[in-house]
Amino acid sequence: MPEAFADYLSDNAREASINHLNVALATGIQLQLAIKQAHWNIKGPSFIGIHELLDDVYDRMGEHIDTIAERCVILGGTADGTVEAAQKDGKLAPYPADAVHQDTHIEELKKRMVQFAALVHDSLKEVGESGDEETADLFTGVSRDVSKDAWFIGAHHTSAKS
């Protein structure tokens, strides 16, 4: 294992966190690419509002991905952010390349964002139990932010009921 900058953790805790971080990294890359796919191709009555929102969500997702990757390296791991790793280790289904209408994109993104938030929420519990509270805290923030962005996106669905 490369040099770690968190030697106060046991090897088992660091290894568990690195594994969870790399799965979150791969899945986060999948999600960020799905967000950009929707951003480029969305059409509908709320086009401009959603288009601009997706720019912001994409940027926030990029910050989360960067933080996840950096934490992996801090713990002595290698951040595996390749397209191949995203395809192999990511947990999201492929994004529908033929999606156009805003409601389709909203549903597809919301579903993936909720899945990603659940993945990091499960990871935060496991790494916390292993003794890595800092990584658990990182996952808490990511889960909270992605859940909020899922709400922002989901609120644009044209069949939302009062």
Automatic annotation (TrEMBL):
Keywords annotated in UniProt: DNA-binding
Q: List, for all copies, the residue spans of the domain called Ferritin/DPS.
A: 18-157
The protein in question is named Starvation-inducible DNA-binding protein
Q: Which Gene3D superfamilies match?
A: 1.20.1260.10
* Family matches, as SUPFAM superfamilies: Ferritin-like
PROSITE patterns for the chain: DPS_2
Source organism per entry reads Roseovarius nanhaiticus
Query: Per its UniProt record, what Pfam families does this chain match?
Result: Ferritin
State a single Gene Ontology molecular function: DNA binding
| Family assignment from sequence similarity | Belongs to the Dps family.
Q: Which InterPro entries match?
A: DPS_DNA-bd (IPR002177), DPS_DNA-bd_CS (IPR023188), Ferritin-like (IPR012347), Ferritin-like_SF (IPR009078), Ferritin_DPS_dom (IPR008331)
Keyword check for DNA-binding: yes
Keyword Protease attached: no
